[in-house]
Amino acid sequence: MEVVIVPDAKAGGALIAEAIAALLSRKPDALLGVATGSTPLPVYEALAARVRSGALDASRARICQLDEYVGLPADHPESYRSTVLRQVVEPLGLTESSFMGPDGNAEDVQGACDAYDRALAEAGGVDLQLLGIGTDGHIGFNEPCSSLASRTRIKTLTEQTRQDNARFFAGIDEVPHHVITQGIGTILEARHLVLLATGAGKAEAVARSVEGPVSALVPASALQLHPHATVVVDEAAASRLKLADYFRATYAAKPAWQGL
């Protein structure tokens, strides 16, 4: 696992946007897996700025969701479909035809999960999957004790996660209890995993994921099993890492042409 420590969230967003731009220069129709929440916003803002300036042509890129609420109307402003369209698809000048996501309102929810896994495979697989991390170490909505081989499926949110997400709604009572999420096994099939974490509140989860044992109790620790996983953290999120100085020195010595 490659760990990159940056000064702040903006620097992390710019670094990941540079990696995505490099990917799109090599493979213009790359399939990009995106995450929601506040953490990845600097990435999307940096990408949109590149598009506006003419430095990046993202017109052939494809976008896929990591997860979706169950039972929330697709056009609800806090559905992940709406969020991705608003924060990623539209700013990059893409159309909805470039976008893939699971159906959180399907009558057969598990069937929709299976169909989404198949669709990702038929699309050639995810080239780069952007991830966030929960305070309990979850990725996507794979809560602690999720199987490390799990596929896209329906999950019940923990009370902690519902509380964390309540800031996007009028109150916790409006936060759905269930979601569709790519499973850890599905996530690990992406060619490049990039996890961004910022703020002191994520420091313990980052340390357990990067330096602790691989464990279902810390779902993000599964990234240690991936051949190309990059963890980008700001100084606050890196504050519990015992090997922080080593990670700084290792990345500083890396040839610039290698990228992330």
From TrEMBL:
Active-site residues per Swiss-Prot or TrEMBL entry: D67, D136, H138, E143
Modulation of this protein's activity: Allosterically activated by N-acetylglucosamine 6-phosphate (GlcNAc6P).
Catalyzed chemical reaction(s): alpha-D-glucosamine 6-phosphate + H2O = beta-D-fructose 6-phosphate + NH4(+)
Entries under InterPro entries matching the protein: Glc/Gal-6P_isomerase, Glucosamine6P_isomerase, Glucosamine6P_isomerase_CS, NagB/RpiA_transferase-like
Coiled coil: none
Residues at the site labelled Part of the allosteric site: S146, R153, K155, T156
Domain Glucosamine/galactosamine-6-phosphate isomerase: 11-225
PROSITE patterns in the cross-refs: GLC_GALNAC_ISOMERASE
GO molecular function: glucosamine-6-phosphate deaminase activity; identical protein binding
EC number: 3.5.99.6
UniProt keywords, alphabetically: Allosteric enzyme, Carbohydrate metabolism, Hydrolase
Family annotation (Pfam families): Glucosamine_iso (PF01182)
Pathway the protein takes part in: Amino-sugar metabolism; N-acetylneuraminate degradation; D-fructose 6-phosphate from N-acetylneuraminate: step 5/5
Stated role: Catalyzes the reversible isomerization-deamination of glucosamine 6-phosphate (GlcN6P) to form fructose 6-phosphate (Fru6P) and ammonium ion.
PANTHER family referenced in this protein's UniProt entry, alphabetically: GLUCOSAMINE-6-PHOSPHATE ISOMERASE
HAMAP family recorded: GlcN6P_deamin (MF_01241)
Identification of the protein by name: Glucosamine-6-phosphate deaminase
Organism: Streptomyces caatingaensis
Name of the gene encoding the protein in the UniProt record: nagB
